[in-house]
Specification:
This protein is mainly alpha-helical. It has helices at 5-19, 31-38, 42-54, 92-101, 111-118, 122-134, 155-173, 182-197, 205-221, 226-243, 250-268, 272-296, and strands at residues 28-29, 58-61, 65-68, 108-109, 138-140, 146-148. The protein has 3 domains: 5-75, Orthogonal Bundle (Arc Repressor Mutant, subunit A); 92-148, Arc Repressor Mutant, subunit A; 155-299, Four Helix Bundle (Hemerythrin (Met), subunit A), CATH 1.20.120.530. A 3-stranded antiparallel β-sheet has the order 1-3-2. It has a 3-stranded antiparallel β-sheet with strand order 4-6-5. Helix 7 runs antiparallel to helix 10. This is GntR family transcriptional regulator.
Length: 308
């Protein structure tokens, strides 16, 4: 039986994790972890891992699961052609997100209407809607049907998210319970340096945005206040809705990574107040660069959204 489009898409995402170094040779792939990461059920993840095992990227060990094999040279990602181009729908989920952003579908819908519009099976639609729930822009109505939410759908909401982050992220660094985690610092330094050296110009925009979000989510963990971390993860999920129709400013990412590394340096030196101030300045700069989006939104221009 041919692999489902969803499984193929997940297989591509797992392959990208390997080629970018997020997964290394010998790593054990945990089905539930990947299902949570991609916002799907475990079934398409298992199918995706089977695809990659057949292609030689993963190894399936009896009674132990799937493990990453050595990455062949042929899987190294080629540089991205960064010429401006229109938004491209990569899968049905992004198509749904784009339709909601552009007001092509109503706020309240039925599963039957969505299945017919996107030509999906019940299981495929369920995966899509559950991912939308996890990313904060859909909810099941009481009784029957679904409702799409206006969170992060407008430039005003996007700005509110950044202003919220400007409050909680610097404050988290100043928490009495904040404690430096060397493992987090070393891993984020490695990722940021690799971004500067090679990844900015060769990775897909979605992965660059993900790396920016992970930097902030990992740092806020060190506050040891789970409410800070949960809140940031939640608003970052909502922010992704706008990112499905945006184009990342790759040139700006070099400065962003340098600012990330400067914050890490301050933390390692124990300059906590300075690190908190640097974080607020970093987020304030990202918000300022967002301003042109609001001016062009009504014309449906293809914005450049900061990846922090």
């Amino acid at each position: 039986m041919p692999a489902s489009p969803l499984a193929r898409n997940i297989a591509s995402q797992i392959s990208l994790l390997v080629t970018t170094g997020e997964l290394s040779s010998g790593d054990h792939l945990r089905t539930q972890h990947l299902a949570d990461k991609f916002g799907v059920s475990r079934s398409p993840v298992r199918e995706a891992m089977q695809i990659l095992a057949e292609e030689g990227l993963l190894e399936q060990k009896e009674n132990r699961g799937f493990f990453v094999k050595d990455v062949p040279e042929s899987r190294i990602i080629e540089p991205i052609n960064d010429e401006p181009k229109p938004f491209e729908v990569e899968n049905d989920y992004q198509r749904l997100a784009e339709d909601w952003l552009m007001d092509r579908i109503p706020a309240e819908v039925t599963e039957g209407m969505l299945r017919e519009r996107y030509d999906l099976t019940k299981a495929q639609l369920s995966d899509m809607l559950m991912r939308a729930v996890r990313e904060g822009w859909a909810e099941r109505k009481q009784g029957y049907g679904w409702r799409f939410l206006p969170v992060a759908k407008t430039p005003e909401a996007f700005e509110q998210i950044y202003r919220f982050r400007m409050l909680i992220e610097p404050a988290a660094i100043l928490e009495p319970s904040f404690k430096l985690d060397r493992k987090i610092i070393e891993e984020q330094r490695r990722l940021q340096q690799r971004m500067l050296e090679t990844d900015i110009m060769r990775l897909p925009a979605e992965r660059l945005v993900h790396n920016g979000s992970i930097f902030h989510e990992e740092l806020i963990k060190m506050s040891n206040n789970p409410f800070f971390h949960l809140s940031l993860v939640r608003v970052n999920q909502m922010r992704r809705l706008l990112e499905y129709r945006s184009r990342v400013d790759r040139n700006r990412l070099f400065t962003q990574c340098e600012e990330h590394l400067a914050i890490l340096d301050l933390l390692e030196r124990g300059e906590i107040l300075e690190a908190s101030y640097a974080m607020r300045k970093h987020l304030s700069g990202a918000l300022a660069r967002k301003s042109p989006i609001a001016r062009s939104w009504s014309q449906h221009a293809h914005e450049k959204i900061p990846a922090s």
